[in-house]
């Protein structure tokens, strides 16, 4: 996540991406009507002239050992310091980092 990777592949190729890949633009009304009427093609294993043993889970070289949802992150905080006393603000920050075991 958050990175880039350049690949070369023979066609046909299948790409999968995370839904956060981009932010879609607002569409015009004619485009929305066209999209609502569009009937996309649906492919299954019989749609391809390939050996069935090369398709699906059996044909996949990738084995997923575990799938999980990471726990939500805790909200951050703000240390509002006194511009006249930066040492005190830094001390508060260091104390918080020690408390959270970010530094040891």
Task: Give keywords.
0% strand, elongated, mainly alpha, 104 residues
Radius of gyration: 25 Å
Helicity level, as a percent range? 25-40%
Order of helices and strands: HHH
Number of helices: 3
Q: What is the mean pLDDT?
A: 86
Number of strands: 0
What is the CA-CA span between the terminal residues?
28 Å
Give the strand content: under 5%
Q: Quick one: biggest sheet?
A: none
Spans where pLDDT lies below 50 across 5 or more residues:
none
The structural class is mainly alpha
Q: What form results from the Cα inertia axes?
A: elongated
Protein name: Electron transfer flavoprotein small subunit
InterPro entries: ETF_b, Rossmann-like_a/b/a_fold
GO molecular function: electron transfer activity
Fold and architecture overview:
This protein is mainly α and 104 residues long. The protein has 3 helices and no strands. The protein has a domain at 27-64. It has helices at 29-37, 56-59, 86-99. It is elongated.
